[in-house]
Amino acid sequence: MTVDPNFLSALMILKLEGVFTLTGEERQALHDLPMRVVVLKTNQDIVHIGECPLQSFLVLEGFASSYKLTADGVRQIVALHIPGDAPDLQTLHLKRIDCSFASISPCKVGFFQLDDLRRICERHPRLSAAFWRETLVDASILREWVVNVGRRDAYTRVAHLLCEFLVRLKAVGLVENSAFDFPITQANLADATGISAVHMSRALKALREDGLIQTRRMHLAVPDWAKLVNAGDFDPFYLHLGVNAAAGFRPAPQPKAAAL
């Protein structure tokens, strides 16, 4: 399947320019990156754990996940990926993939050869640094997810995850009036937060009843961002967004305790 290369480069440029402005040559290099586009149904594997891929991929539409399975087949989702994400950039440096990647909604991904990407990195060191930064941000998000799963209750975990999704989607222009498409099943959300499907259903119901979220089919709206931030113990610092991208998303400063 062919796709407008301007669309492909626009996604990557929008993501990278949240950090620094690209030069004309850097933009052109991304524009010229050869890419093969594949349309996926929900729950299709993209890359399997243990593989030694010769290509990497970019999420163009829909949502994907990184996941691992226990010995008895229980799945833990360790990351969620949105349009503009290149989840497996570690393949530039690591031979084998240490987790699996799959679509969790109808999804469109673009595959590019690692050799082509390496040539871009050699010719444009700032792009190489930007791609390396993306892998570091992924690691930062994973550390926050460990805290979320290990130390927050179900209600707070889910609120935190929804806060993260809104901020990340806003950074790539996919949020309108604090609302966004959210075609992710409760089972996937449960696997991402380490709770049962029953607990996920209860947490979402409680968030709706408290007026923090509104859901309709595959759409989610946040009527009161400040309350959702407070419920989710959320601070976007760990996402390492640019100053402009993070504006308006930080929690309100708490008043200092009076000196004794």
Strand and helix layout:
Blueprint: H1 5-16, H2 24-31, E1 36-40, E2 45-47, E3 55-61, E4 64-69, E5 75-81, E6 100-103, E7 107-113, H3 114-123, H4 125-151, H5 154-171, E8 179-181, H6 186-193, H7 197-209, E9 214-216, E10 219-221, H8 225-232, H9 243-246
Antiparallel strand pairs: 1-7, 2-6, 3-7, 4-5, 4-6, 8-10, 9-10
Would you mind describing this structure in some detail?
A hairpin with a 2-residue loop joins strand 9 and strand 10. It is built from nine helices and ten strands. A four-stranded antiparallel sheet has the order 2-6-4-5. The chain folds into two domains: 5-146, Jelly Rolls, CATH 2.60.120; 152-246, Winged helix-like DNA-binding domain superfamily/Winged helix DNA-binding domain (Arc Repressor Mutant, subunit A). With 260 residues, the protein is α+β, with helices and mostly antiparallel strands.
Please state roughly what percent of the residues sit in beta strands, choosing from under 5%, 5-15%, 15-25%, 25-35%, 35-45% or over 45%: 15-25%
Total strands: the figure is: 10
Average pLDDT for all residues: 90
CATH superfamily of the largest domain: Jelly Rolls
Please give the share of residues in helix. 40-55%
What is the ordering of alpha helices and beta strands?
HHEEEEEEEHHHEHHEEHH
| Gyration radius from CA atoms, angstroms | 19 Å
